[in-house]
Amino acid sequence: MDDFMIRALIAGLGVALVAGPLGSFIVWRRMAYFGDTLAHSSLLGVGLGLVLGVSTGLAILFVCLGVALSLVVLQKNQQLASDTLLGILSHGALALGLTVVSLSDVRVDLTGYLFGDILAVGIDEIIIIYGVVVVIGIALVFLWRPLVSATVHEEMAHVEGVPVQKVRVAYMVMLAVVVAVAMKVVGILLVTSLLIIPAASVRAISRSPEQMAIMAIMAAALSVACGLGLSYQLDTPAGPGIVVFALMLFLGMFVAEWLVKRYAKRQRH
After folding, report:
1. Using CB atoms within 10 A of its CB, is residue 143 exposed (0-12), middle (13-18) or buried (19+)?
2. Which CA distances in Å does 251 have to 157, 172, 200, 236, 256?
3. CA 242 to chain centre
4. 204 pLDDT more than 80
5. Domain count, the chain
6. Which CATH number covers residue 23?
7. Positive or negative: CA dihedral 100, 106, 109, 112
8. What would the mean pLDDT of 87-99 be, rounded to a whole number?
């Protein structure tokens, strides 16, 4: 196997390690649109990085963090629903991003940012990805129970003394960091898919939050490995290939679940 494919596989598996558990919370908390908002806002980070002459990775990270924290502040305003706020932030950041990119003197091929370029991942980026994996992994160890409690029943979590607001902010920050890192792997338009689809695929067969998180990691890792293999064999874009395989896995699990339920129903009759 070529060196660039090995680096791509290592990087993709690193993203899968954090996409699994964080994606599970997205599915449980119905926050898919928040993931899209972060992904769209990352284009603004690209534009600011080019205009200011700083690392686009750092600019994307700071913009994603800013959007996440802005949502927390704006949610305190009860006049607007969360989906309305997310729509404003998502489309506003996307429009601002395209505008700022157009103001840059550097000619930019947005295809790589939109759909990712995992095959161009270098050693330095792999180190960054796994550094993020370690930090978020440690954070999840300490925040797992409060996160699960706040997700299952927020009011009960308050009663039990869980700092729900701080836990929510911590989760949003972790998600923003992952979106900024994973954008290099699958791109702005597809990053949310890698977070959501593997977790959604295994939800029906999971018996506990921990089991779902582990199985989501396995599903995301399988999507990365098979998606890269599919891309290598067919000479197709790698980022979309990963998400296509994740979609195939979801559809396969959906059909299998339907067949099992249908068989069980026949057995009862």
Report:
1. middle
2. 35, 28, 10, 21, 8
3. 13
4. yes
5. 1
6. 1.10.3470.10
7. negative
8. 84
Give the CA distances from residue 254 to residues 19, 75, 174, 243, in Å, rounded to whole numbers and listed in that order: 20, 34, 29, 16
- Token readout for 195 is 């977070």
Distance, in Å, from the CA atom of 150 to the CA atom of 159, rounded to the nearest integer, reads 11
Query: Following CA atoms 197, 219, 115, 49 in sequence, which dihedral angle do they give, to the nearest 10 degrees?
Result: 90
Give me the residue label for tokens 């997310």.
Answer: 86
| 164: containing domain | 3-268
Tokens 């649109």 belong to which residue? 33
- In the chain, count H helices and then E strands: 11, 0
Contacts of 9 (CB under 8 A, 6+ apart): 224, 225, 228
What is the rounded end-to-end Cα distance, in angstroms, of the chain? 53
Band of pLDDT at residue 236, cut at 50, 70 and 90: confident
